[in-house]
Amino acid sequence: MNRNWLALSTFVAMMVSIYLIFMYAPTEATMGDVQRIFYIHVSLAWTSFLAIFIVFIYSIRFLASRDRQLDIKAFCAAEVGAVFSTTVLISGPIWAKPVWGIWWTWDARLTSAFLLWLIYMGYLVLRRLIESPEQRARLSAVFGILGAVDAPIVYMSNRWWRTQHPAPVMGGGESSGLDPQMRLTLYVTFAACVLLFFYLWKLRCELERTQEVVESLQRAPQFKEVS
Amino acid sequence: MSFLFAAYTIIWIFFFAYLLSIARRQKKIQDDLAEIQEWMDRQKK
């Protein structure tokens, strides 16, 4: 999809999701208005899983083909995924404080989500530390593949272990489920977050490719001599 | 209500800050490209 169309679709989806979150979705009986953080918090978390899955896929493809473009796609997905993962860790405690009375607890869900954030950060730091482009691409691909293992653990953690974090409201068995209006709001917000992810990813990939070309031109001996 | 407001405000500020950082990097690349273009023009002369 053309970048401008993607930007426009993201903007429209975001506006619709804001309307649904604040005007359409009913107020939850126990938590009240603060429960509306749920829609963005869960959507950001799902999108951060999508991002690490993309890092995983492109890292495998890079190791199989050694195509530099695939490494760029994996790296840019990791950078944008890190932004989403950070916002999950910001929105979670803001929701937890009024509902649980505490900002944070080291239960399985929160700890594995924090670990996912550390994996994203580790990936980005690793790329800054290694000078050689080939070695950097190879090692970060391995790190990306190993790091992606954490995403299913985060997703399943409140199914496998007893956690302070609420039990799953979607796909969590017979006792789980959402009001249809709440479900629609969640799906639209998730779609808006996915569009935002793809927009930022596309933007970041284009920037990275241009940067590589500029840097290779600047490394050319003729340019160095004169400038 | 203040927690709800804080959550959405911080998230949007964070995404705008990231967009701004991309725009700044893009500006730096454009400046570098302009410098290369200038150098190429000088070489032609």
Detailed description of the structure:
- The complex is a heterodimer of chains A (227) and B (45).
- Chain A is mainly alpha-helical and 227 residues long.
- Chain A has one domain (3-22, 34-162, 177-226).
- Helix content of chain A is 78%, strand content 0%.
- Chain A has helices at residues 3-24, 37-65, 68-100, 108-129, 133-147, 150-160, 180-219, 221-226.
- The longest helix of chain A is centred in the last third of the chain and has 40 residues, at 180-219.
- Chain A is globular, with a radius of gyration of 20 Å.
- Chain A starts with a helix and ends with a helix.
- The model of chain A has no long low-confidence stretch (mean pLDDT 91).
- The N and C termini of chain B lie far apart (66 Å).
- Chain B has one helix at 2-44.
- The mean pLDDT of chain B is 92.
- Chain B is an all-alpha fold.
- The interface between A and B is medium-sized, with 30 and 23 residues.
Characteristics:
heterodimer; A: 227 residues; mainly alpha; 8 helices; 78% helix; 0% strand; B: 45 residues; 1 helix; rod-shaped
Provide a short characterization of the protein structure.
The complex is a heterodimer of chains A (227) and B (45). Chain A has 227 residues and is mainly α. Chain A is built from 8 helices and no strands.
Extended strand count of chain A: 0
* Average pLDDT metric of chain A: 91
The helix/strand series of chain A, from N terminus to C terminus, equals HHHHHHHH
Radius of gyration of chain B: 20 Å
Strand content of chain B: under 5%
Task: Please give the structural blueprint.
The complex is a heterodimer of chains A (227) and B (45).
Chain A: H1 3-24, H2 37-65, H3 68-100, H4 108-129, H5 133-147, H6 150-160, H7 180-219, H8 221-226
Helix pairs in contact in A: 1-7, 2-3, 2-5, 2-7, 3-4, 3-5, 3-7, 4-5, 4-6
Chain B: H1 2-44
